[in-house]
Structures are given as C-alpha cells and as structure tokens.
Amino acid sequence: MAPPDAPADIEADFVIVGAGSAGCLLADRLSADGRFRVVLVEAGRRWRDPLLSIPLGVGAVWKAARYNWSYRSQPEAALGGRRLFLPRGRLVGGSSMINAMNHVRGNAADFDAWAALGLPGWAAAEVLPLFRRLEDYAGPDPDALRGRGGPLAITEASHADPVVEAAFSAFAAAGHTALADYNGARQEGFGRAQFNLSGGRRLGADRAFLAPALRRPNVRLLTGIRAEQMEIAPDGRVTGVVCRRGGRRHVVKAGREVVLAAGAFGSPALLLRSGLGPAADLARLGIPLRAHLPAVGANLWDHPRVAVEFRRRRPSQLSGAMRLDRLAVALARAALTGRGPASEPLAAAHLFARSRPGLPAPNLQFLLRLFNPALGPRLPFVPPAVSDAFGLVACLVHPASRGRVRLVSADPADPPAIETGILGARQDVEDLTEGFRMAQAFGSHPAFAAHHDGPLSPSSQLVDQGEIEAFLRASADTIFHPAGTCAMGPDGAGGHGQGAVDGTLRVRGVRGLRVVDASVMPLPVRGNIQAAVFMVAEKAAGLILDAARVQG
User: Edge-to-edge, what's the strand order for the sheet holding 152-156?
Assistant: First the structure.
C-alpha cells in the first residue's frame, strides 16, 4: 500500500471525500472483496493522542483546534444575535473521535417519515437490518432487535453513582417507563445510556472500520489534503476531486464514483463550489452553474438543548479524579486498562419523552450528566473554582426550525456561512420550555433532591414563561447534530425531483457523484445521530456496490 500521505495525482475506482464516520465505513465496505481501488481524502491528520480514546478525554478534545474545523454560526436571530460554536472533527475518524459516543438509533417513526416522503427503501423495517449488521451489542435484547458480532461495539453505561437510581425514581414517579433497551422496540421511556466503547475505550470510525480497511492493498488514505471542488466533464460526469495540499494542486481521479462524506457543513460547501446549488447564489459569487439545485445548503436542522444543573451534596467520583495528582493516574489507568473513573462517559442515562399530547413519538431527550463539565484539573488541596454538579440536559430532538449553509466567496479557504436557525419556530420555543420545566420537576423529586443542595444557578429556578423563554434565547445552543443540508428527495415527473440527492443518494444534475453523510437526512432523527450516519453509510455501500456490479 502506498504511504497514506503520498502527494500525487492518482486514480481509483471510488474516491471518498472525508474520513469521518461515513467515509471510514464506506472505505471498509467498498474495498472488502478486493475488486475496487478506494482512495480516501481527508483534510485532517491521523492522530495517536491517548486522550482521543479515553472517555474523560472528550472534555479536552472536542474543542481542540488541532482536531476541529471550529465553525461558528452567523449571528442567530432567535438567540439575540449570539454566534454558536459548532465543532466538527478535522481528523481521521471525524466527529466520531471527539463526540460523546452516545449510540441512539432514533425512533422508527423517523425512518418511516423518510419513506413517506417518497423514498422507498428507507422505512424503519427496511433499515433495521442495516443497524443490526453493524452492531456488536453487549446488553439485554428483550425484543431480539439488536445485532451481535458486528464491527461496532456498543456498551451500556455502568456508573455506580447513586444519582442514577435517584433519577430513575424521579422519571418513574412522573409516569415514564423503565426500558431495558431504548434502541429496541420502544424508545419512549428511560434507561442506561449506550456508547460506542470497546474495552473502556472510544470506538471511533477509524478503529472500527478504517483500520481493517487500511490493511488491504486496494485502499489508500490521503491525509492533510483538502478537497476544493469536483472535476466535472462537459457531459456532466464527475470524474474526480480537485484537492490542495499546501500550495500544490492535485486531482484525484475516480473511475466509477466520487462520494462526498464531508458532513453537513462540508458536503454542501463542496457542491456549491462545484456549481451545484441555487443558481442565484452561485451567480452572485461568480461560480459557473452546473445544475440548479435549490436544496443544496438548505434544510439545516440540529437539536437545541438547555441544561438544568443541581449542586451535588457529595462530590462525584470524577470530581475527585480531577485533582492533578490523581488525574494522571486516572488517565493512565484508563489508557492502559480501560478501567477507572476516566473510562466512564459523562452521560449516564437517557429519557425520551413528549412535551405535549398528540405527538406521534417523543420529541424530547434528556441526558443525565453526573459531573460538572466546567470542573477542570486543579492542584491538590485547592478547592474547585466551581461547584460539582449533576444535570439534566433537555434536547429537542424533533425541531421544526431550519437553517442553511451558504458560501461567502468562491475561495475554498473561506469557511461557509452557517445559520443554524434554532428556536426560530415558535413551537420549538414552547417545546424546549416544557423540557426545561420537566427537568426542574425531576430535580424536585425527593429521591433526586436527596442528592443535591439546590440548583447550580438561579436560572434553574425560573418559573415565569417569559423569563424562561429569555433564558433559552440567552443560553440554549445545539448538541452538535447538524444534518439535512443535502437532503434526499423523491423523484418527480420528467426526470426532475426534489432534494439535492435522490433516494439512492445520487446528486441530481450530474452523474457519478453521491453524498453519504448526515447531510442527506431529510427530517430529524430523534436522538444522537452517529448511529443513523453509520446506517446511511451501510446502506450507501450496498447501493454503490450493486451499481458497480451492474456496470461490470
């Protein structure tokens, strides 16, 4: 195999742009039988930092510039002009290397809604085998709906903190159902969180999918090389990817297909720079139009969140581990053995619930956090600068608000302009307000209250509707699940269709180009989106290989 960073113009059957969650899986699947040459193009590096594999390390890596595109939104109209930090992984493994590792499939209603748009093959019953094929689930499976023996290890949280059982008592007292597995037949209810962990260490896309693929001679990884636009022939066929490393220009040629897996911000930006997008926007930037695709960059959705935190009566195990004399030991133990407080993820449990009656499925997700993430390392015998706390993070997982991604110039070095649009829809404000109130009520339950000395901040005690709304607009942000900006849409009469891509993820208006990442999701998924991204990539691999077999 050629060196992973060899700078040369090369050719392959399939060129994948972005070595993130989807790209790593695709590289594995498309290269598995040895018939096809696969090149994976990644702007970031392949890092070996132990903090990337230690669950507690997420606090250090998710904002680190060397691993991150570090996007910022445009001033958000519904948030008083605030600009939101929007982390996206810029390294091999992508955001699967810097996220909180939660594994949530989503609700069956989500995928049935995709199919109802006119997208056959995407209904819940049709994508279930894809989820199962990927999984190696170690927990209880009362509904016989989980996978065993797949490449993606899934481990249930094992926190021994008494706050977990106290939270479960509060949830049950409010009428919510205890679940053995919220990724099973029923999502609505509560249970211990599930994570992509193996042996107490993060199982990102690099380790789960790309590492096996790179042992094959037909796979090549190019790192530190940035894709700028598609190379499109006069007949409309995408023949390669124009890339740049330093001052040198490279063209990576694709004999069969180019696959964009650059994420909800990167993939639409690449399409737009290639002349695939809204005609008027491209004309303003002087970009020659190849296909008028109004859906490119539109329909951005994300999950807004707000936290209600409570001052812990007794410090958490993680709080004690943050003393510098103990932290090094905890990190070393986690890195070497996968055990100890540093090997436990921050979230301990999830509750899925409805903010109001009449909804077809839950629209709120509550994450139980046992530790105050604002607590940093400290010297021995020096009191913490902030109080230890546990909290409930209320997330609106079926929002109505939409944003967009657009270019500010034709220069690939300029980041795209991102408007998340969160809380732009009045119903979202009301639903997240109800989530905030529910979190307050859970905290007041006697079982929960026995473990805290009241809210961490006065804002958690707000009761007036107007004051709560003002607090949301001043403090809510997203939980970093951007999607929808190259959305799938059904075919229409005369060869036309809605959406940036069709139901097989082919980009409209050209040939030989697909998008495979969270950007193709037309409607929200109820929960953390990484599992759904893996599912989309698994389905895409089958579609791509089927097409290759037909072509011969």
Answer: 135-137, 152-156, 194-195
> Per residue in 81-102, pLDDT tens?
999 999 999 999 999 999 999 9
- CB within 8 A of 39, min separation 6: which ones? 10, 12, 14, 15, 16, 219, 220, 221, 222, 252
The per-residue b/e assignment along 446-469, b for 16 or more CB within 10 angstroms, e otherwise, is: ebbbebbeebbbebbebeeeeebb
481 carries an active-site annotation: yes
Of 159, 250, 481, 496, which one is the catalytic site residue? 481
d(CA 372, CA 207): 29
Domain ranges of the chain: 1-68+86-149+199-301+482-552, 158-192+304-396+424-475
Which CATH number fits the domain 158-192+304-396+424-475, given the four candidates 1.10.10.10, 2.60.40.10, 2.40.50.140, 3.30.410.40?
A: 3.30.410.40
299-343: per-residue pLDDT in tens?
Answer: 999 999 999 999 999 887 777 677 777 888 888 898 889 998 888
Note the pLDDT of residue 450. 95
Q: Is the CB of residue 387 less than 8 Å from the CB of residue 284? A: no
